[in-house]
Amino acid sequence: MAPSISMIHSNPLDILDFVVNKGHGVKGLADLGLKTLPHQYIQPPQERFDHTSNEEPNEDSIPVIDLSNSDDPKVAKAVCDAAQKWGFFQIINHGVPIHVLENVKDATHKFFELPAEEKKKYSKEQSGTNNVRFGTSFTPEAEKALEWKDYLSLFFVSDDEAASLWPAICRNEALEYIRSSETVVKRLLKILMNGLNVKDIDSTKESILMGSKRINLNYYPKCPNPELTVGVGRHSDVSTLTILLQDDIGGLYVRNTKTMKWVHVPPVNGSLVINVGDALQIMSNGKYKSVEHRVTANGNDNRISVPIFVNPRPSDIIGPLVEMVESGEKPIYKHVLYKDYVKHFFRKAHDGKATIDFAKV
Ligand SMILES: COc1cc(/C=C/C(=O)SCCNC(=O)CCNC(=O)[C@H](O)C(C)(C)COP(=O)(O)OP(=O)(O)OC[C@H]2O[C@@H](n3cnc4c(N)ncnc43)[C@H](O)[C@@H]2OP(=O)(O)O)ccc1O
Ligand SMILES: O=C(O)CCC(=O)C(=O)O
Ligand SMILES: [Fe+2]
Q: Which residue, among 257, 248, 239, has the nearest Cα to 341 in the 3D structure?
């Protein structure tokens, strides 16, 4: 029997079963026409977003950098300055064709419109691999309060593996977005490495900087009580760099590490949001910042975003780059197996910047 709203409200266990086990996700809940937020999603007051006091008035927002002339030293300076000050920036004229971005956004909507039984085939239990995972919230088993988000996470191994494992409805669009962003990723990493006095990106460095990629399709359905919950809780990414495509709804906020206030990342048509992840903070010995960010839930619209996490390979050992140490800097991070770092991140609820303590000396 299809569950009704009253059945779901009267038995708290049914929510988890419906959303997590049966694969309906929060989209399934939203589609039922829920009028109030189930208690499992109510975040503690300090994690909710209070628009009246949390947001920085007249804030100096994260930079929007025009990459049309990326050989211009001013562009390189703007990228390195933003990676140090904000850990976030947006790029325009980045070379990724607009139709590729539009196609992956459309494909994201199409995937989440599939029936629950179809999406469930890509869950951890049914996909049979960690490289393809349809899920909800972040780590439901470890979270005190759930997050109002469903996702499909695809770890890229090869085109052949993607052809056999990724959902056909979004596979080509996701692959095309990964392929077309490769050039800009390399350009940005070259600029950022230059800023650390690393002149040569040999094959070992290339592996550590961008040896693996994961693409997530995130879906944040319209929420009945957005003020009581979050889309994504406070976290920093564990990537080297994240290339994020967001739609025109808004809701991504970044911590200003000086004032500790939250700064909105406004949607800019055709732009990509770039952020430094923990792996690059560690490799740069803290020079580039992997900054806390979060996503609000929205009471009026469904929102999607599509991050590509550019990472070291799971088998890489990451630590401050040799060039940082040779320059006389005292390492503030130790060397860790990247896979152990990522597992540590995935096994706990979102907890702001706490993951990086795993690698602190
Ligand atoms: C989902 O909402 C999110 C996600 C994020 C993500 C931000 C990022 O920065 S993602 C970039 C992560 N980096 C990589 O994926 C590249 C390196 N990959 C690896 O090291 C490995 O592939 C691995 C992820 C560690 C998995 O390796 P495997 O050998 O398969 O390890 P297991 O021991 O089987 O799994 C360990 C443990 O990891 C968790 N897990 C694995 N994959 C995912 C996934 N796609 N999503 C969530 N959790 C995952 C899981 O706990 C596994 O244990 P299980 O018992 O549950 O299987 C930011 C914000 C968000 O809201
Ligand atoms: O949806 C967004 O804008 C950001 C999502 C995010 O931070 C993530 O997936 O790591
Ligand atoms: Fe993130």
A: 239
